Amino acid sequence: MRNILRKYTSLSFTFSLVFFLAIGIIHCTKQPKRAESNKKTLSFNGREGKRLFIHYCAPCHGEDAEGSGRYFPSYIEPQPPDFINSEYLKETNENVMFRAIKFGSKALGKSNYSPSYDETLRDEEIRYIIEYLKFLKMSKDEES
Amino acid sequence: MENLLKIVSKPDNVAIIIMMVMVGFFVFFAFFQALKNDRKKASAKEEKNKLEKEKIHTWPYLARKEFLVAILVVVILLAWSIFVDAPLEEHSNPNLTPNPAKAPWYFLGLQELLVYFDPWIAGAIIPLLIIAGLMLIPYIDINPRGNGYFTFAERKFEILIFCFGFLVLWIFLIIIGVFMRGPGWLWFWPWQEWDPSRVVAEINVDLTQLIGVNSRSTPGFLIGGSVIILYFSVGMIMLYLYLRKKKPNLLHKLGLTRYLISSFLLWSMIGIAIKIIMKLTLNIKYIWVTPWFNI
Amino acid sequence: MPFQEKKEEEKSFALHFLILTFLLIVFSIWALWEEIGALRPWKTYQKLYYGLKYERTAQELEQARQEFKNPQVQEEYQKLKSLLDKEEKELDKPDKQKEYKEIEEGIKEVDKEISGINNGLLVARNKLLEQEYQYKKFRKERNKKKIEELTERIRILEDRKKALVNKRDDLKKIFESFTLILEKYSEKLKLFPFSSRIEELEKLLKSLKKPKIEIEQYYIEDLNKVDRCTSCHVGIDNPAQSSYPSPYTTHPAHYLYLENHQSRQFGCTICHQGQGRATSSIDKAHGRIEFWEEPMYKDENTQASCQHCHQDIEHLKGAETLKEGDKILKRSVCFGCHRIDGYENIVKISPPLSRVGEKVNYTWLVKWLMDPSQIMDGATMPKYDFSEEDAQAITDYLYSLTQREKNDKSAKEEIDWNLYDRGKIIYSQSICSICHSANGRGGAYKEMYAPDLSRVGSKVKREWLKKWFKNPENFFKNARMSRYRFTEKEIDSLTEYLSGEYVDWDIEEVKMSMPLPIEESSIQKGASLIKEYGCFGCHDIEGMRDIEEIGPYLKIDELEEMVAEGLTSFGDKHLQDLDFGKLTKAPKTRTDYLRIKLENPRAFRDDAKMPQYNLSEEEINALVTLVLGFSKEEPLVRYRIEKEVSDYQPTGEFAEILEDVKCLSCHKIYRKGADYAPDLSIEGSKVKEEWLSNYLKSPDIIRPMIEQMPKFNLGRESQMSGLKLSKNEMDIITDYIMTVLVSDEIPKNFLKEKNISQAEIEKGRLIYFEKGCQACHQIGREGGGVGPPLTTVGSRLTPGYIYKHLLNPRISNINTVEPNLGLSDEEALSLMKFLSNLQGKKKR
What is the mean pLDDT of chain C? Predict the structure, then answer.
């Protein structure tokens, strides 16, 4: 053993030095963990949408968008649809939703109870509201 | 232990760990080879020729090994630079002095000396002596042996003096400065937590005060001065007498100038060690207090 | 030696050399790659971006090409093209060509002549100058003559030139007329929308093939900021990128934030913080590294930066979290203990305690001090964690200020049920439940911070309650409750009702049956506890104000160390000044410090004096957002936006009534007051006078119950004690509103004809139902309840106001829920006529 060591002493020395140094240096370099993006929380745009929804839409559509707004008369047909517990949002194209909010339910050929918000809300604000609705639907789906 | 790990893992201090390992290794290796050579020489005293055959040319045999090591060092440095970033520390705040405020590691030996010596001595005179001494080595070293091979027996004195000066008075002080000095430049064992509000009562006296004489008065001045002068003169004279008796050839070869210089340097080195011990044991601050410098 | 070692000369180091050289090459290349690539991640991001943009542009180009292929479009295009071709052919005809060439030649000839003349003119002028010089010097006759000659010659030449130039212009005109129509058509073709778009896209595509990959930065010189954020977030300020993936997505609410704060002028870190100059890694650029003191704000905390320039955050769109934090700060009276510049003059909602012995029962107060939120729902007072002895000591002290002994009044006394019933009616008429919650209902107007009444019968003593109803200000100078004009009997009834209805049976069990004396030692202990915990910071206590060492900023012993600096410049604090105390492992940023402190004030030190506030996570986040932005640094003058302070100061008798009834606790006039009830600034132009005086006497229902105006019994002569008025207060109010609170924008006497024809009313009615107004408004019994019922709107609102409101609902309330339906003037007029006709049944 000693003889073998003597033979390859310089080579083994080189290798071991490099090896240990590499380990030491790699140990020194610790990459910080990046926070994982949580898809379950609402983005900024969604929060804006929530604020707008609660201010403009909740009186008729309900705070939770389930159609039971306390200020919408109960005897009028059609009632505001339940967006969350039905497949309404999944089946509806985003552009259609956009037009519904912007130009009113009349533009979709439905009743005229949901007014046009063309003059009141900007396009971006309408998109934020749509994002919020989608988030509500997604949360409800995940709960069940 | 946490404190120790914190110090050790600081990117700046990685160099010190490596230094400790390397110094230890190379000293060990040098001594190992030297002793091996000495043993060989002792056993081969009769066969002088064999020894001659043991020599090889520096170029290319040593040079190629050195070249390989050079490549290795470059590789290590490149790897280090890739993996370890230069550290970004806090905003410098002129209202907040770091405690302890430590010099870079290569000067920590001198900073440690400040504990024992007046700043003029520790910061100016001693470094001057170190540099001057190192420069003078080729001139005062008259021992021609040991060229190109490890040996200890043939250069005992020179090696021992160098090891004393380098390992004890330099490396060891650096290690103390890195690991054992905490806030307030107080002594902290490596496993102790650095407590910035720790207070240690230390009363330092000057040498003459031990015998009741005020060090700044004239008698104190005279006493201190005479101690120093006596130390050097007696030391040098005693050494001279000793050498004249035991190694007159050496003395003859040295000559007076060389002797004076080398003995002065030798006694200075020993003096530093003595002063350190005096400070640690007797809490002696200064031996000689003058208006221009304090030793 | 048993083993023959190889001679040194014979040893081969080739293998070593090979391995080492190989390592050297590997590491060198690696280091180079790191430097070029890995440490410059923005290059990757930019390449990805341009790749993505290239793809999308290519898609758009395809689409545009498809659209162009549309037969209709092609038809138009070809038509234009054929016109152009025709013109070209016309021009190509030989005689036209000949004419064209002739004129061209002619122009050339004229040009040549003109240049010859120009030459001659030049020579002549030079000679003239020479002669003039000679004449000036030598005054010789011949020079003078020469000058005259030359001047004459120049004149002739210039005339000739002029003629030639005119000729040339004429020729040029004719020349151009050939190509005029040609150019017109080719211009049209170039600008043809579809093909020009294709060209545009093609050009864009070409430029995207080899995009320039370089650092992009905004250098804001006067702030000394260099922001390189857009090196990775390429094009984030481009509103067209909202469908791009992160990090290229358009900045959220771009229209709100970036349009008002252009990147070129502001950069990014002025709002978001972070390390603007860093580009070598995401964490470094976002400042989320160990020693960078301003890491990038998370989500809403970014709004903290708004305060650096905007002094007025109450009306700032886009800073909702900040506003929320401001509200919470005012409600929690943080500035009672912590000094905060800018909040010195805010009225504290905490009641004075000097006469609290008169007001509350002893046992109740002890229980309250131990844990307020257990005793009363929605209590804003925080929890100090007092032990029972400590709470008793403090109560003893407070009682000792006005009472000689500690006593409880039981609510289990005999209730007079007649008065109780009457009190119940008065309670509902006065609509106390708008501000006061009780048993889980009511209290919609949260910003009044009116105490919950669920157990008020056990809390207060009856005599005090009667005095309170008589005039709240006698007890609490800054009370926001109105002084209802109750008669004595009404007060008794109300008190009876409250004492009988809202009782805390647990406290009733432990109430003292007999009054007990208060011990001196307990009083002393209570006083020292109050001083230690700084109750006087929020509550006014006799004997603990205006004393040097107990100023409003708690300059006592260790409290001074902690709060003396106050929160005014919390946002400037250095990380080393944040004392995390026990928590050595916590992440050390300002945000974390604030959040931990608000969640659990005693997290850092066990002996901290700050009490525990019941704040939800969102509320804490809002407060954190607010406080993070507190800073002593003044913004640059050109960035600063001042607060618009209302300078409305009512005077005269109206002002007295306003003070007494506290109208501005709910209403707003000229930007002063609160936002709960409608803004009265243009009320005079808005409503009709008869309606107003009837309404003030007895308010009927306009809005849903939670916003219904209470019956203050205005106009009752007998109850206006303390106010010396020249006439009935109702008249004063009506007069003031009708004369002062008017607006020029609303036309007076808008509807001139008294009788509107039935046809017009019918037209208006059709529009009403067509637009879907009945979804939110009620007429009679039909309709929704989002907006006020319109059954009698014709007798309530002036026609001018109705008209203006229909055209823009935001005219009197910016935050109205009513959408702007984009009505035309005619539609608005018809609707107005219809609505003005809705007068309802005439009241008695």
Answer: 85
